[in-house]
């Protein structure tokens, strides 16, 4: 079994304690190659039930492409072994104002329909003892996006992961996204956008901090 990094273990524990890891059913005991082979076999059956000709040279490898994509790409965030390497440095410069990364690109997968969620995140925090490498914020967003998701949980998972790593409650996350299960099927609404926000510490309790965060979002999203 792969050893998790200290940060991956801390984040997983915090999420479990807060009921924010409801989809995982425990450690996956099957080897990755066995899981991929099984997914491909099952997907072959789905394609056959759709009356698709698996002998067609364009379709023949699709079940394997799907299996590879699920395990190594769009659902890679289900495995904490893929949690990003985190670099935090001590806050020797005594930064005490809001740090914001906005317009973080994310694509995720709606857990109800397995269709794309296409959005952007804004993440702010007020440094306490640590400052995090900026790209690590994008990577944490990406990690949790690479799962079957609902947008509300994704927003909360990113918040709690950063609070845990940074040792402060003063974190805020907002995501706006287009859901292809709303756009490309069902109601077929091509313009609606869903916004979700999760606020911690001063972002929740102080009107000034909250307003500063929302003014960044309003002016830039
Ligand atoms: N709250 C929330 N709902 C979501 C998210 N992604 C998809 N959904 C919704 O999940 C719901 C599933 O509803 P169901 O009635 O079971 O599925 P459905 O019959 O395909 O629903 P329609 O999309 O209305 O056709 C839909 O309303 C989706 O829009 C999300 O991130 N958050
Ligand atoms: Zn959906």
From TrEMBL:
<keyword id="KW-0479">Metal-binding</keyword>
<dbReference type="GO" id="GO:0003934">
    <property type="term" value="F:GTP cyclohydrolase I activity"/>
</dbReference>
<comment type="subunit">
    <text>Homopolymer.</text>
</comment>
<dbReference type="GO" id="GO:0005737">
    <property type="term" value="C:cytoplasm"/>
</dbReference>
<dbReference type="InterPro" id="IPR001474">
    <property type="entry name" value="GTP_CycHdrlase_I"/>
</dbReference>
<dbReference type="GO" id="GO:0046654">
    <property type="term" value="P:tetrahydrofolate biosynthetic process"/>
</dbReference>
<feature type="domain" description="GTP cyclohydrolase I">
    <location>
        <begin position="39"/>
        <end position="217"/>
    </location>
</feature>
<keyword id="KW-0862">Zinc</keyword>
<dbReference type="Pfam" id="PF01227">
    <property type="entry name" value="GTP_cyclohydroI"/>
</dbReference>
<feature type="binding site">
    <location>
        <position position="110"/>
    </location>
    <ligand>
        <name>Zn(2+)</name>
    </ligand>
</feature>
<dbReference type="GO" id="GO:0006730">
    <property type="term" value="P:one-carbon metabolic process"/>
</dbReference>
<dbReference type="InterPro" id="IPR020602">
    <property type="entry name" value="GTP_CycHdrlase_I_dom"/>
</dbReference>
<dbReference type="GO" id="GO:0006729">
    <property type="term" value="P:tetrahydrobiopterin biosynthetic process"/>
</dbReference>
<dbReference type="InterPro" id="IPR043133">
    <property type="entry name" value="GTP-CH-I_C/QueF"/>
</dbReference>
<keyword id="KW-0342">GTP-binding</keyword>
<feature type="binding site">
    <location>
        <position position="113"/>
    </location>
    <ligand>
        <name>Zn(2+)</name>
    </ligand>
</feature>
<keyword id="KW-0554">One-carbon metabolism</keyword>
<protein>
    <recommendedName>
        <fullName>GTP cyclohydrolase 1</fullName>
        <ecNumber>3.5.4.16</ecNumber>
    </recommendedName>
</protein>
<dbReference type="GO" id="GO:0005525">
    <property type="term" value="F:GTP binding"/>
</dbReference>
<comment type="pathway">
    <text>Cofactor biosynthesis; 7,8-dihydroneopterin triphosphate biosynthesis; 7,8-dihydroneopterin triphosphate from GTP: step 1/1.</text>
</comment>
<dbReference type="InterPro" id="IPR018234">
    <property type="entry name" value="GTP_CycHdrlase_I_CS"/>
</dbReference>
<feature type="binding site">
    <location>
        <position position="181"/>
    </location>
    <ligand>
        <name>Zn(2+)</name>
    </ligand>
</feature>
<dbReference type="InterPro" id="IPR043134">
    <property type="entry name" value="GTP-CH-I_N"/>
</dbReference>
<comment type="similarity">
    <text>Belongs to the GTP cyclohydrolase I family.</text>
</comment>
<keyword id="KW-0378">Hydrolase</keyword>
<keyword id="KW-0547">Nucleotide-binding</keyword>
<dbReference type="GO" id="GO:0008270">
    <property type="term" value="F:zinc ion binding"/>
</dbReference>
């Amino acid at each position: 079994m792969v050893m998790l990094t200290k940060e991956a273990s801390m984040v997983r524990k915090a999420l479990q304690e807060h009921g924010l890891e409801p989809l995982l059913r425990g450690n996956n005991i099957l080897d990755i190659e066995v899981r991929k082979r099984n997914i491909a076999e099952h997907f072959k059956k789905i394609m056959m039930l759709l009356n698709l000709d698996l002998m067609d040279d364009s379709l023949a490898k699709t079940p394997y492409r799907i299996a590879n994509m699920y395990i190594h790409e769009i659902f890679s965030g289900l495995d904490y072994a893929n949690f990003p390497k985190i670099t935090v440095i001590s806050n020797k410069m005594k930064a005490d104002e809001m740090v914001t990364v906005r317009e973080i690109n994310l694509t995720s997968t709606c857990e109800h329909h397995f269709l794309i969620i296409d959005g952007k995140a804004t993440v702010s925090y007020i440094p306490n003892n640590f400052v995090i490498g900026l790209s690590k914020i994008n990577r944490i967003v990406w990690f949790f996006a690479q799962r079957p998701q609902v947008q509300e949980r994704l927003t909360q998972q990113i918040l709690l992961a950063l609070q845990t790593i940074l040792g402060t409650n003063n974190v805020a996350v907002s995501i706006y996204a287009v859901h292809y299960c709303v756009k490309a099927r069902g109601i077929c609404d091509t313009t609606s956008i869903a916004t979700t926000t999760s606020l911690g510490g001063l972002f929740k309790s102080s009107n000034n901090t909250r307003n500063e965060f929302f003014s960044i979002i309003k002016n830039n999203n």
